[in-house]
Design brief:
Layout: E1 2-8, E2 11-17, H1 26-34, E3 44-49, E4 56-62, E5 67-68, H2 72-84, E6 92-97, E7 100-108, E8 114-120, E9 144-148, E10 151-159, E11 163-168, H3 177-185, E12 195-203, E13 206-213, E14 217-219, H4 223-236, E15 242-247, E16 250-256, E17 262-267, E18 269-275
Parallel strand pairs: 2-3, 4-6, 11-12, 13-15
Antiparallel strand pairs: 1-2, 1-18, 3-4, 4-5, 6-7, 7-8, 8-17, 9-10, 10-11, 12-13, 13-14, 15-16, 16-17
């Protein structure tokens, strides 16, 4: 199997060009290639595929083999790959995902290679049914208490096409992400599990985020999670609707615009290409 390793703010995936090839068992392939000791090493597997409704289609698999609806860092790299490798020639393209069709604006350097991508992440979904989350379907979850191991967290839940649980903390660098992340990810409130963002507010326009990603553990960045944090900060009145988010692997710019859509801008980097037996 031919592949390309790419990352967006350190959130790294193995990408396969399915315009030229195919992956028959992506769940098992994702587990194999993601292994950082015996595989390529990544947060998961992303397939770049033809689409009947958009310029490209993205399928994304976590390192545990589970399929996710969307990946904000991953889709920027899909756009970069598609442009740099001649699948598309436009600098504004559409991508089909499990969360719907998204529009991406590509920014190139002097060598006409994509360096940065702005993604219309869509409108955040805020009700329990949309997230999904158990409870009264039409209600929102903003600053709601959740008890974990005799500790009460206040959670705000948002779907950006995939579920997110945002928790604001005083000291994110020293927070026990590996202790609490999996407990919240697998909490009975979330029938499809959830991603968890632990966030420290630096100022109304700046935050620091660590992410426990559903099916992958702690990752260096999460684009949909950063988008959810922008929404959660505004809903709780602790940030404005336009923020700079410092993730472990780099920075993302987020804006919850007046049109109701969430826009994310960040880097996309190709690391290397190769071939592996699967």
């Amino acid at each position: 199997m031919k592949f390309t390793k790419m990352h967006g703010a350190g959130n790294d995936y193995v990408y396969v060009n399915c315009f030229e090839g195919r992956v028959d068992n992506p769940e098992q392939v994702a587990i194999k290639v993601s292994n950082r000791n015996f595989g390529i090493g990544s947060d998961g597997l992303i397939l770049i595929m033809p689409s009947q409704t958009a310029d490209v289609r993205m399928r994304m698999f976590n390192s545990d083999g589970s399929e996710s609806e969307m990946c904000g860092n991953g889709i920027r790299c899909v756009a970069k790959y598609a442009y740099d490798h001649g699948i598309v020639t436009k600098k504004e393209i559409t991508a089909e995902t499990g969360a719907g069709i998204l529009t991406l604006q590509l920014f190139t350097n002097s060598l006409n290679k994509v360096e940065k991508v702005r993604v219309n992440m869509g409108k955040p979904r805020l009700t329990r049914a949309e997230i999904p989350m158990l409870g009264e379907a039409g209600t929102q979850i903003v600053n709601e208490p959740l008890n974990i191991l005799h500790t009460t967290f206040h959670i705000t839940c948002v779907s950006m096409g995939n579920p997110h649980c945002v928790i604001f903390v005083d000291d994110v660098e020293n927070f026990q992400v590996e202790k609490y992340g999996p407990l919240i990810e697998n909490h009975e409130l979330f029938p499809r599990r959830t991603n968890v963002e632990f966030v420290q507010v630096i100022s109304p326009s700046e935050v620091r985020q660590r992410t426990w990603e559903r099916g992958a553990g702690e990752t260096l960045a999460c684009g949909t999670g950063a988008s959810a944090v922008c929404v959660a900060g505004a809903l709780n009145g602790v940030t404005g609707k336009k923020i700079l988010n410092h993730l472990s692997g780099g920075d993302l710019e987020l804006e919850w615009a007046d049109d109701g859509f969430l826009y994310m801008t960040g880097p996309a980097v190709e690391v290397f290409s190769g071939e592996i037996a699967v």
